[in-house]
């Protein structure tokens, strides 16, 4: 038993040392799979009444099949990018209405910069003909680390629970053997690389899981975005709500004039 524990411990130490041997910069190149689970009735409730008969069957087929998207994560230890794969699809097709809508919002990468104080995230978004640059401090997720452990993508992972956007519970699993306090999307701040995250937002249950991870010492340059109207996440959410309200009013107006 002691030999088994010692072998496991040596394996963890060896993996950790490989990230910083001889002072070399170790870059991470990872692939995540994001699964989106939706409730059909709640989703249909967000569709204007006049379009429900037309899109209902397509939405149901897509939700039943499952919506899956691949993301590529790259990090040089100081900055990182999280990018949606251009080819988007679900379990049976190359992308339904839901996947296409999500892809249109996520067409540009999410960037993180850990060289500044506080660490900052960047996200370019094109919305209804307007360009925005969401620039905000990476939030404090108030992580609480548990003793629960599991294996994900070949790595021993520890469970942690936190809070997104002040009120949304998020569960994350991180790998202490990979000493990078980063992860998918805007998540960060745990003592190890985040290999899985799960949360609910806008009636969607999101599950983001590490599929593959490669480590190299090849130079990785990250150029932060500068284009677009600079807004915080809170400011952007307010703009989004105003746009959605105007769109709903326009949809209702077009029905009344027919």
Q: What general form does the structure show?
A: globular
Q: Could you give the order of the helices and strands?
A: HEHHEEEHEEEEEEEEEH
Number of strands: 13
User: What is the helical fraction, as a range of percent?
Assistant: 25-40%
| pLDDT < 50 runs, ≥5 residues | 1-23, 88-94
N/C terminus separation: 78 Å
Q: Biggest sheet, open or closed, and with what strands and sense? A: 13 strands, mixed
**What's the total helix number?**
5
What structural category arises from helix and sheet content? alpha+beta
Which secondary structure elements does this structure contain, and how are they paired or packed?
Elements: H1 2-17, E1 27-38, H2 40-45, H3 52-65, E2 67-75, E3 79-84, E4 89-90, H4 97-105, E5 110-113, E6 120-127, E7 130-137, E8 144-152, E9 155-164, E10 168-175, E11 193-201, E12 204-216, E13 229-231, H5 233-256
Parallel strand pairs: 7-13
Antiparallel strand pairs: 1-2, 1-12, 2-3, 2-4, 3-5, 5-6, 6-7, 8-9, 9-10, 10-11, 11-12
